[in-house]
Write a structure and sequence with these properties.
heterodimer; A: alpha+beta; five-stranded antiparallel sheet; 24% strand; B: alpha+beta; six-stranded antiparallel sheet; 4 helices
């Protein structure tokens, strides 16, 4: 793009916003807030996160690139427990995400202290969404550049998922995804119909979908982080036990390879048929 | 405070407020000790029965020897299916109930469903416990919610929170504790519960000077809430606190014609 010199000191590039994107308190003539859109871009190219509501519980998962061989495995955490029965996963700018998780823990603790009952997923998601939105209206703050999925299991309402984006929008879902592989993940989730499966069965599909989302960058090493709230975990938010996760990942990879082979074979068959059509006289 | 010597009713026109004529008697307002805090001396009671919970209270609010309100309502609404019973200093309990209503209203709109009775009790407890050196309040919080059904929580003076199936409170509760212990049984029907409560509260009102008036009852079930009151002439044990002229009668003038029953045995 063109380069403009501004006030002799700063250089700015002409971007889509063209003048209405300098701070978050400006609306553009089309009615968009560009800073919030830029914050959403921060999450679009980051690790995929997803969640699924099942018959008896709820699952959360994320795939993350291993940044360095020297890093202690498990120290780059994305999935956190906010209360015993609420878990959160973050993507985008990770320090922003960690700040929100801290806030969520404070909100839950103060709710429990005042009302004597554990906070429900919907109320927590609403409060975090309001908190994130607060950063999109004042001049001196910038939006949080992360997407969050909150998974919860309440006595009254059962399993629930909420996805919050940097603008502060919060919706409840049966299955949702955010990050780089969100389109693939969303298609797969729709096809799956997780509401009729148990968490145990769905965990395999979660692993498979996360591996599928990562296919474009197969060369780069990555690892999965999965968690669930279901009878197998004692109705408490817990990371998937390591042995179960390993076994599921191995099965998932096998299945994906088989499906890939089947795809290639059917392509070959199609080509052969076309050849046969042309040779017969 | 040392008792005042009986002052003469002043006759100046500006002192008219100091005189009140009540029937044939002149009451000198100055001789009444206004510094006594207004209290719900009270008998309050709540019982869980099969299908809901019933709350009952007397209706006397006193300030020292003066009855401020003989038909007061000690049953405070907190939410659609949550109510509380007040005993102790009226100002304190009314304020606590008002604040509880505020917070539970907020909780109800956040949750978008019936708030739990436990939360209302917790809020009342947090006030009574944290301000116990300033307050003189003991309350019973009762109601129905979809998860736990009918519940009663007592919060006495110190700020303990206890869940019970039958709870009594106030100065009159001591006089009916024997009766309650003997005649309470779990899982009563609505009619049995109502009769049990009317009988107990009458007994308490009969003996406790800070309790009296009418019995107010409130019934909370899944389907709704209904109120009623038992007026003084329908009480099982009749009381003689409505007639001022009873002081002029001697004990053998049990005069049915005047509708006065001295309750003497």
């Amino acid at each position: 793009g063109d380069v403009y010199k501004r006030q002799g000191l700063r250089i700015c590039y002409k971007m889509a916003g063209s003048g209405y994107d300098y701070d978050v308190s400006t609306l553009s003539p089309e009615g968009k807030i560009y800073q919030v859109e830029y914050a959403m871009k921060a999450t679009e190219n980051s690790s995929t996160i997803m969640g699924m509501v099942c018959k008896d519980g709820v699952l959360l998962g994320t795939e993350k690139l291993i940044v360095s061989e020297m890093m202690v495995s498990g120290s780059d955490r994305r999935v956190y427990s906010v209360t015993k029965q609420i878990g959160m996963v973050i993507t985008g700018l990770l320090p922003d995400g960690r700040c929100l998780i801290d806030r969520a823990k404070e909100e839950s603790a103060s709710f429990q202290k005042q009302y004597g009952i554990p906070i429900t997923g919907k109320v927590l998601a609403d409060r975090i969404a309001q908190f994130m939105h607060m950063n999109t209206i004042y001049l001196w703050a910038r939006p949080y550049g992360c997407n969050i999925i909150i998974a919860s299991l309440d006595e009254g309402t059962g399993p629930a998922l909420h996805l919050i984006d940097p603008s502060g929008q919060c919706f409840g879902y049966f299955g949702c995804a955010a990050g780089k592989g969100r389109q693939i993940a969303r298609n797969e989730i729709e096809k799956l119909g997780s509401k009729n499966l148990t968490c145990k069965e769905c965990a395999f599909h979660l692993a498979k979908i996360l591996h599928k989302c990562h296919e474009e960058m197969k060369e780069k090493k990555f690892e999965l982080e999965m968690s669930w709230i279901c009878p197998e975990s004692g109705m408490v938010h817990q990371m998937l036990p390591k042995d179960i996760q390993k076994e599921l990942e191995a099965r998932a990879q096998e299945t994906l390879e088989k499906e890939a082979m089947a795809d290639v074979q059917s392509q070959i068959m199609k080509n052969i048929n076309i050849c046969l059509l042309y040779t017969s006289d | 405070r040392p008792p005042r010597s009986t002052p003469k009713p002043s006759s100046a026109a500006s002192d008219v407020y100091k005189r009140q004529v009540h029937g044939d008697y002149l009451i000198d307002m100055e001789s009444i000790d206004w510094s006594q805090p207004i209290r719900d001396g009270t008998t309050i009671m709540a019982v869980v029965y099969d299908g809901g919970v019933m709350l009952g209270a007397d209706s006397r609010t006193t300030g020292g020897a003066l009855i401020y309100n003989r038909v007061s309502d000690k049953i405070e609404p907190i939410h659609k299916r949550i109510f509380c019973l007040r005993s102790g200093a009226s100002a304190h309990t009314q304020k606590i109930a008002q604040l509880c209503r505020l917070y539970i209203g907020q909780l109800g709109s956040e949750l978008e469903e019936t708030p739990p009775v436990y939360s209302a009790a917790k809020i009342i407890q947090s006030f009574i416990y944290n301000y116990k050196s300033f307050l003189s309040a003991a309350m019973i919080c009762a109601g129905w919610d979809p998860i736990k059904g009918p519940q009663i929580y007592t919060i006495p003076l110190g700020g303990t929170l206890v869940r019970e199936n039958i709870a009594t409170g106030g100065s009159g509760s001591a006089y009916m504790s024997g009766f309650c212990d003997t005649h309470y049984k779990a899982g009563m029907t609505r009619k049995e519960c109502r009769d049990f409560m009317i009988q107990s509260i009458s007994l308490a009102m009969f003996r406790d000077s800070s309790s009296g008036g009418i019995i107010r009852l409130l019934d909370i079930t899944k389907d709704g809430v209904s109120r009623e009151y038992i007026s003084h002439d329908q009480l099982p044990l009749k009381q003689n606190n409505y007639s001022q002229s009873c002081l002029l009668y001697t004990s053998d003038a049990a005069d049915e014609g005047l509708g006065v029953d001295l309750g003497g045995r």
